[in-house]
């Protein structure tokens, strides 16, 4: 299948990974719902179309082809009906705001302070790898019950899973153009199981308050647990998306604030502005940029495009969050813009389960960083590069300060 506009046929994975904004700006203007051959699916690029499809009864969740190859079945992001209901009943309780408020401060603040203590007296740091990602993965790892797994190993897992999930390029026959791109994630999943299987063996007979233990037991008849093969695909989802999102949201928010020194100063002086800064950071560079999909359950027309039953549509929330019809100057980071809703966490019944958790991890991480190092500045001798079209964030962020 080809698109109806010739330049779309020439889109490459490389340009999407480096900078999807140029392609998606043109898509929004010329073909906001378009078939993109390199992705092997339709792409929705505007806020209105993304939201309409995400909430439409004519579409169900489906995992992308590369996502299915990475996670397996049943992953919570790609199932519907009773299985989706059960998986959400498994993961949702620990992530409800009232529950998160009970333990989030005690969980995240010591982690943030520990990582800050490693570099606060150095006068310089690379903040993505040295702070944002470690705080994010450690917080979720501890919540899941993976305290014995190092933060470096957790980061390694989520990067490998991320590269696999976004290894989406296909040829004219729908075959992956880089099948070897899944190898490192396959190895990571083997390692994950070798570490988590013994923990599951223990949790089956000795349940505790860790999230995975609750996944095994909650809602099950006495003496029964969910099968580990049933929960592993959703665990892989967590080890990618749930670990990636808070860390890269923190990093993107900091990059955005560094582009607006006056706003950075405002946030430092008034920490109550941090949640607003984070919300703008997630809109400006959505961590989960274009990683969710829907499939039409019948022939349907959307935005003038006839979609046959079974059409897969990628919901490009990062593009929707730059929609000029919704946001003024969307490519600029600006905490003073009207607080319009964004789609960084999706919409509909498959909206991200960890919305509140992710925001609180970001909030505490930035509170601790900016209180400890209020004179922080970006090191302008190093450029900031962002990477990714499915998941997106800064690859590194160098900063310095006077000690």
**Poorly predicted tracts of residues:** none
CATH homologous superfamily annotation: Cytochrome P450
Write down the CATH class: Mainly Alpha
CATH topology (level 3) name: Cytochrome p450
CATH architecture grouping: Orthogonal Bundle
Order of helices and strands: HHEEHEHHHEHHHHHHHEEEEHHEEEE
Return the domain count.
1
How would you portray this structure in words?
Keywords: Heme, Iron, Metal-binding, Monooxygenase, Oxidoreductase. This is Putative cytochrome P450. InterPro entries: Cyt_P450, Cyt_P450_B, Cyt_P450_CS, Cyt_P450_sf. The protein is an alpha+beta fold and 403 residues long. It has a single domain, classed as Cytochrome P450 (Cytochrome p450), CATH 1.10.630.10. 50% of the residues lie in helices and 10% in strands. The protein has 15 helices and twelve strands. α7 packs antiparallel against α11 (228-259) and α8 packs across α9. The mean pLDDT is 96.
Quick description:
Helix 11 packs across helix 13, helix 11 packs across helix 15 and helix 13 (274-284) packs across helix 15 (355-372). The chain is built from 15 helices and 12 strands.
Task: Label this structure with key terms.
single chain, 403 residues, alpha+beta, Cytochrome p450, 5-stranded mixed β-sheet, 12 strands, oxidoreductase activity, acting on paired donors, with incorporation or reduction of molecular oxygen, monooxygenase, oxidoreductase, iron ion binding, Putative cytochrome P450
